[in-house]
């Protein structure tokens, strides 16, 4: 019963008006400050976690885009694909193998 009465007196403000309880005010303000700081830090940690999850998803999407683009480019760089692309310009592959030209000869 006395505990309920003391909580009620704090809520009403009677606790703070008594002179013998004023020595506890700096400690109570410190506790309130630490509670507010704890709330702020938890919100900050939550926002950082959300940002981290978003960045991980972006990295995953970029990795998939990289793999898709790389496979498309590998397909384009094949000799047969290049021959098909340049055939419309009337270019064909040579049947004569390349040879080295020495400038000293």
Overview of the structural elements:
This protein is mainly α and 105 residues long. The chain has one domain (2-87). Helix content is 72%, strand content 0%. The chain is built from 4 helices and no strands.
* Count of distinct strands: 0
This entry's quaternary arrangement is: single chain
Main sheet: strands, sense, barrel: none
Number of helices: 4
Strand content: under 5%
What gross morphology would you assign?
rod-shaped
* Run of helices and strands: HHHH
Structural class: mainly alpha
Give the domain tally: 1
Report the mean per-residue pLDDT as an integer: 87
Helix content: over 70%
What low-confidence regions span 5 or more consecutive residues with pLDDT below 50?
A: none
**Amino-to-carboxy terminus distance:** 113 Å
Rg? 38 Å
List the helices and strands and how they pair.
Blueprint: H1 2-12, H2 14-17, H3 25-76, H4 79-87
Keywords:
105 residues; mainly alpha
Summarize the structure in short.
With 105 residues, the protein is mainly alpha-helical. It is 72% helix and 0% strand.
């Amino acid at each position: 019963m006395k505990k309920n009465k003391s909580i009620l007196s704090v809520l009403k403000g009677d606790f703070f008006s008594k002179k013998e309880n004023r020595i506890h005010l700096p400690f109570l303000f410190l506790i309130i400050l630490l509670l507010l700081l704890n709330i702020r830090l938890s919100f900050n940690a939550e926002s950082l976690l959300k940002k981290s999850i978003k960045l991980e998803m972006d990295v995953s999407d970029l990795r998939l885009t990289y793999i898709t683009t790389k496979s498309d480019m590998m397909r384009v760089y094949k000799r047969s694909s290049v021959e098909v692309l340049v055939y419309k310009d009337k270019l064909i592959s040579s049947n004569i193998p390349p040879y080295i030209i020495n400038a000293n000869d």
